[in-house]
Amino acid sequence: MADSKKTLAAVLFGLLVVLVVIFLVTSGRERIRKTANPAASAAASAPSDERPTKKATLFFPRDDDGLLVAEDRDIPAGASVDRDAVMVLTELIKGSSGSLVAAFPPETKVDDLFITKDGTAYVDFSSDLADKHPSGTDAETSTVFSVVNTLTFNFRSIKKVFILIDGRERETLAGHLSLERAILPNYSLNVKR
Predict the structure, then answer these.
(1) Which residues lie across from 60 on neighbouring strands?
(2) Given a cut of 70, is residue 82 above it in pLDDT?
(3) For the residues 90-95, what does the mean pLDDT come to?
(4) For the residues 165-180, what does the mean pLDDT come to?
(5) Is residue 119 classed as helix, strand or coil in its secondary structure?
(6) What's the rounded Cα separation, in Å, for the pair 158 and 167?
(7) Helical H segments across the chain, by residue range
(8) Nearest alpha-carbon partner for 125 in 140, 145, 105
(9) Which of 58, 71, 166, 184 is the most buried (most CB within 10 A)?
(10) Sorting pLDDT into bands at 50, 70 and 90, what band is 39?
(11) Torsions phi, psi for 154 (to 5 deg)
């Protein structure tokens, strides 16, 4: 029995010596090539057509009654809900691909957007939204709820929306609907599909 233990120990020791020699001989041969800019290499290797997209539902006002009609769009999927929400609003500002009414003056921009832990999205629009907005209660209601219903419908983390203009709170957008608090969605304005 003692001889078999010595033999096993000798074999294991010999195997260990062989592994150490192989490691020492081959360790110098492998080289890791560094790229000058890893982000640029990754971007160059992924074709822009293959960027992931996600479906978003946008709500545009209907001309005859101001109710909001759903229109689906594919938007580039971002790394965060904030970025995706800005992309959705940017598509909303572009207007309907059909015959629905534009809810925004075309010059409008989203300057900033952030979402609090309680689910309030603060959206800061450029002054063009207020300065070039058509007056009237219906037009103002359509614009505000186009934003609120679109964001809350597409993003579970958004429960209500606070609209800012040029980084400031305003009493109203164009004199009719209060913007002094965060606004909850009003899905009764949406036309049923």
Answers:
(1) 69
(2) yes
(3) 93
(4) 84
(5) coil
(6) 20
(7) 2-26, 38-45, 81-94, 128-131, 137-154
(8) 105
(9) 58
(10) very low
(11) -90, -20
Q: Residue 111 has what pLDDT?
A: 95
* Backbone φ, ψ for residue 81 (5° rounding): -65, -40
Query: Is-contact 85 113, C-beta < 8 A?
Result: yes
pLDDT of 80 strictly over 80: yes
Distances (CA, A) of 111 to 83, 127, 192: 12, 10, 32
Cα(58)–Cα(146) distance, rounded to whole angstroms?
Answer: 8
DSSP3 helix / strand / coil % (the chain, rounded to 5): 40, 20, 40
Tokens representing 192?
């049923």
Per-domain boundaries in the chain: 2-45, 49-189
* Locus of tokens 């003692």: 2
Tokens of 84: 């995706």
Question: Rounded to an integer, what distance in angstroms lies between the CA atom of residue 140 and that of residue 136?
Answer: 6
Q: Return the pLDDT at 172.
A: 79
Q: Cβ neighbours of residue 42 under 8 Å, at least 6 residues apart?
A: none
pLDDT at position 90:
94
Q: pTM for this structure?
A: 0.72
pLDDT over threshold 80, residue 62: yes
**184 vs 80, residue with greater confidence:** 184
The CA dihedral of 142, 143, 144, 145, to the nearest 10 degrees, is 50
- DSSP 8-state secondary structure symbol assigned to residue 178: B
Say which residue the tokens 């500002």 belong to: 93
Helix (H, G, I), strand (E, B) or coil at 113: strand
